[in-house]
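User: Here's a structure from my thesis project, written as structure tokens. My advisor, Dr. K., wants to see whether a designed sequence matches the one we expressed. Can you design one independently, without my sequence as a hint?
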């Protein structure tokens, strides 16, 4: 009981002070079904640029200080980074890891939910269908290779020249191709870009900027196409910018998009991607007896 300090009579209790007008309860986090949107996808790719420069700069510094490649200066190491897989693959792995770590710090803060939930990793969907997904990736790889026999493919693409440099470099390319490469490429293109386009189209339809009758059925196909184009162009230098292999890469991208959307699982498309990439090396492994006779790639 509170007493008045002058009359010493009881004072009725007062209500709790009201909250200031500028205070509002925290808004709930966006539903996972609306993540990531196109703005998040743009932010991811913008974020990847400084990670690329930081990763390459630090890698060159470490290579120079460690003398793993002799007494080469920075200019020679930079040239080597573009031609020798023994340096190029660790540098690319490092930049991929930096990008992934930065994304895993920034986006959960934006989404107010775990990173894996925001990108729809959904490992359970991949785990329960693991054998089927691996078989799908292997079948996709062998089917694409068979189809390539009927198309004008480049004879000596740069990726083949990179593998011929050394046995260690070839094994590093194989390991990178079935681990870090599919994980980061799926994160970028099927984790961010594909749902970003889908949500962007749906937002335009809800605002009646686009006609629902005309675009509702085109939302997913257009999003797959817009995701596939930059994905294929990312690999253009590896295949001498030839249209035939780029077309085949586009087919692979479309298949990965279907798996990602059908199972609502980025982990599932990553497994298919890794299995597909393995088929690209399987024939070379047999031809060179485990990369011990790389000169056979010239025959």
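Assistant: Designed independently from the structure alone:
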């Amino acid at each position: 009981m509170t007493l008045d300090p002058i009359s010493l009579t009881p004072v009725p209790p007062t209500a709790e002070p009201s909250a200031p007008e500028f205070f509002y309860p925290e808004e709930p986090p966006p539903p996972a079904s609306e993540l990531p949107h196109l703005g998040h996808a743009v932010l991811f790719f913008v974020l990847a640029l400084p990670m690329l420069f930081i990763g390459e700069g630090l890698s060159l510094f470490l290579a120079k200080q460690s003398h793993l490649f002799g007494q080469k200066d920075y200019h020679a190491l930079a040239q080597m980074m573009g031609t020798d897989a023994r340096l190029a693959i660790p540098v690319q792995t490092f930049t991929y890891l930096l990008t992934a770590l930065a994304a895993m710090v920034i986006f959960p803060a934006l989404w107010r939910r775990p990173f894996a939930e925001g990108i729809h990793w959904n490992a359970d969907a991949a785990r329960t269908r693991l054998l089927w997904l691996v078989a799908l990736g292997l079948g996709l790889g062998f089917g694409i290779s068979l189809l390539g026999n009927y198309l004008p493919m480049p004879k000596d693409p740069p990726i083949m020249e990179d593998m011929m440099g050394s046995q260690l470099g070839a094994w590093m390319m194989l390991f990178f191709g079935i681990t870090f490469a599919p994980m980061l490429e799926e994160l970028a293109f099927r984790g961010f870009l594909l749902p970003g386009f889908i949500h962007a189209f749906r937002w335009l339809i809800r605002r009646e900027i686009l006609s629902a009758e005309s675009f509702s059925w085109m939302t997913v196909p257009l999003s797959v196409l817009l995701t596939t184009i930059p994905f294929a162009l990312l690999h253009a230098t590896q295949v001498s910018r030839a249209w035939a292999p780029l077309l085949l890469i586009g087919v692979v991208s479309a298949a990965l998009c279907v798996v990602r959307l059908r199972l609502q699982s980025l982990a599932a498309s990553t497994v298919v991607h890794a299995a597909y990439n393995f088929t690209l090396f399987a024939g070379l492994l047999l031809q060179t007896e485990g990369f011990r006779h790389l000169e056979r790639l010239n025959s």
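When you compare it with your expressed construct, this may help: The radius of gyration is 26 Å.
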